[in-house]
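[09:14] KT: can someone run the structure on this one? pasting the chain below
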Amino acid sequence: MTPAPIAVALDAPDLETAAQWAALVTPHVSTVKVGLELYLRYGPDVIASVRGASGVQVFLDLKLHDIPNTVAGASRAVSRLRPAILTVHAAGGPAMIRAAVEAADPQTQIAAVTILTSLSEADLARIGLVGPADDAVRRLAALSVESGAKGLVCSPNEVSAVRAEVGEGITLITPGVRPAGADTQDQARVATPEQALADGADLLVIGRPITASPDPGAAAAAIAASLRRAS
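[09:31] RB: done, structure tokens below
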């Protein structure tokens, strides 16, 4: 059975828990995601620990955002870990995105984060982003693809508009995915897994609805089964 297009966010308190969660979910999902907290606490060792013997794809979500030379160096530094996906902030601009792409291993897809799913329309206005969120996301998406990014991170609310903007061949990754009835927690722009895929997403980032479950493996299997039924 083909694993579901889900990246499980391993926001674990320690390396052992992250590795355990990864082992439980990998029969059911294609990808596991390592974020800033886990990577900064344990360093490169975390990648091998969560990849395990399964060889599951690792999404290294570092959201790099600095001057182009620094981001190129960081991208080059993590290339030896062979993550399937590495994130940068689209707001870093075209030169920075291009530097990350050129420095990365060819097997690593650079994905540009458009606007964080925790930000509401009011938040965007306060930080000076003009216009509604979907307009800002579309602008950043187009800029990122023009700069060589092969993936984009956007909320489920914007995924349909982004697909129309950039066309096929670009991987659209959507955090803010919550199964029906789940707590939205700190996410402001959310959708169900089935809706996100129907709107054009390629990879769904799901964390706490799986990892906070008493049985993460069963939770991942249930969501994967619901996606198969909907397809």
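[09:33] KT: thanks! DSSP finds eleven helices and eight strands in the chain.
[09:34] RB: yep, looked fine to me
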